[in-house]
Design a protein that fits this description.
alpha/beta, Rossmann fold, 7-stranded parallel β-sheet, 6-stranded parallel β-sheet, binds nicotinamide-adenine-dinucleotide
Length: 454
């Protein structure tokens, strides 16, 4: 649904009025278009003394054809992105180095720019004093995300020791317009879970334009909305997409998969024989699967006292029970190939809770539980599991909300607007990338840094 308020405040007169009255002024967010540069302006890279990631970050950015600066900037210089390696910070006194880097330049970040802080996971710090300082960086980044405005995002990437070579896919994603609606997030990167990761050790190479070439991706609920966008972006990245949806969505699903050169599998994921049918379909037709995205999901809102047991069961069985049954079958039957990816679709309702959504929030918190419980198990089998937690995304579901709730959902975030299905899809494509083998156990909100559950 069109965001008429955003259209209005982006007219010359609308800009003046909204500024004078103090209304939110959402900018048009830059989004990725194939063929465009990944980072469309200079990047300033700095580091606290003794940091271990500055060189790795610079080489990832140069490989992405970014203009990298690491000296003291001139007063009139502006930047598309600021990247600060904070891994050298070993005490709270040294947090001052983050202030020293950002203070002179934070106001010179361009529209839809990026602020990225690199840290050490507190659990990997050498001592409690260092752990406190590294944990403190979360507060810095979350506040910066709320201050910068104009479509600028801020993130903290915690990179474990010995995982310096796993930075590329994550830094590329967060430095680019692919992460347009992701802000205030904390990402954990560890050593690769598989040896089949592109890099000098495996001899495998990656084409960053088509990282999923030769891969097979299963997307449930692919007939419309966010699922159709996920199918589209994974196909753009080179995957053969197998879209799943219920038989009543047959023509919509075929329209999506047909356009993308993919395949359709019509079934209800809650049917008792669905996991076996998906496993045999993937094995027989495609020889296995590399990426599994559990997107199919429903809401059936009622306060708990008015909710029938049917509504409870329906939401739980689609949103959290079916994904677990499917994963179990796929792994038991050896259908998921080495360096495989599982991605769940949670929701900020699963983090913050929402009146009238006890069934939905329970199921979506369960999706987060799946990520936490299965990450160590899948790592043993050379796979990763992560989830996205979308906030207010412009789809048929949110267009049907009462206007007051819809407007509140749209504006109560650092971008002052709703996200698009493609924003969720791009985040999933980053998790699905074969080079994201160090990214597991993460739940990343795609919510424009919504105030709900923040
Ligand atoms: N739209 C948002 O703002 C938002 C916010 C947070 C989370 N989400 C989550 O994102 C996902 C996609 O949401 P959407 O807005 O695109 O929803 P949607 O209703 O537009 O699409 C969901 C798709 O899943 C399919 N589906 C439902 N039950 C199924 C079943 N039993 N078997 C197979 N397919 C089934 C539907 O037919 C439909 O094509 C859901 O998991 C939803 O909970 C959406």
């Amino acid at each position: 649904m069109a965001d008429r308020y955003q259209q209005l405040v982006n007219t010359p007169i609308g800009r003046i009025v909204s500024k004078q009255v103090g209304l939110p002024s959402p900018v048009k967010l830059e989004r990725y278009e194939p063929g465009q540069p990944l980072i469309s302006g200079p990047v300033l890279v700095g580091a606290a003394r003794g940091g271990r990631l500055k060189d790795a970050a610079e080489s990832v950015l140069r490989e992405a054809d970014a203009e990298v600066f690491s000296g003291i900037p001139g007063v009139d210089e502006t930047f598309k992105a600021l990247v600060f390696d904070a891994t050298g910070i070993t005490s709270s006194e040294e947090l001052r180095e983050a202030w020293s880097f950002f203070h002179p330049v934070i106001r010179s970040v361009r529209r839809s720019g990026r602020v990225i802080v690199l840290g050490t996971p507190p659990s990997d710090a050498s001592n409690p004093v260092e752990a406190v300082a590294q944990r403190a960086l979360e507060g810095l980044v979350r506040s910066l995300g709320k201050e910068v405005r104009r479509g600028v995002t801020a993130q903290l990437l915690y990179v474990a020791p010995k995982a310096e070579d796993q930075l590329a896919s994550t830094l590329r994603f967060f430095a680019s317009p692919k992460s347009a609606y992701v802000s205030g997030q904390v990402v954990r990167i560890g050593p690769a879970v598989s040896k089949a990761v592109p890099g000098p050790d495996s001899g495998l190479t990656i084409d960053w334009e088509r990282p999923l070439d030769g891969k097979v991706a299963l997307v449930t609920g692919a007939a419309r909305g966010i699922g159709a966008a996920i199918a589209e972006v994974l196909a753009r990245d080179g995957a053969h997409v197998v879209g799943v949806d219920v038989p009543s969505q047959s023509s919509e699903l075929d329209a999506v998969t047909g356009r993308l050169g993919g395949s359709s599998l019509l079934l209800d994921i809650t049917a008792p024989d669905a996991p076996a049918a998906i496993a045999s379909g993937l094995k027989d037709e495609h020889g296995g699967v590399d990426v599994v995205v559990h997107n199919a999901g429903v809401t059936r809102d009622k306060t708990l006292g008015r909710m029938s047991e049917d509504l409870w069961d329906l939401v739980l069985s689609i949103n959290v029970i079916a994904p677990q049954r499917i994963d179990e079958e796929l792994f038991e039957q050896g259908v998921v190939r080495d360096n495989g990816r599982v991605v769940g679709v949670s929701s900020i309702s699963g983090i913050a809770g929402n009146a009238g959504q006890t069934n939905y929030s329970t199921s979506k918190a369960g999706v987060i539980g799946m990520v936490e419980a299965w990450a160590p198990e899948l790592a043993k089998r050379g796979g990763t599991i992560n989830a996205v937690a979308p906030g207010f995304i412009e789809t048929a579901m949110t267009a049907a909300m009462p206007i007051t709730i819809r407007e509140a959902g749209r504006r109560m975030n650092s971008m002052a607007q709703g996200g698009l299905p493609v924003d969720v899809a791009e985040t999933i494509a980053w998790m699905a990338n074969p080079a994201s083998a160090g990214v597991t156990g993460n739940v990343i909100r795609v919510c424009g840094q919504s105030l709900l559950g923040a």
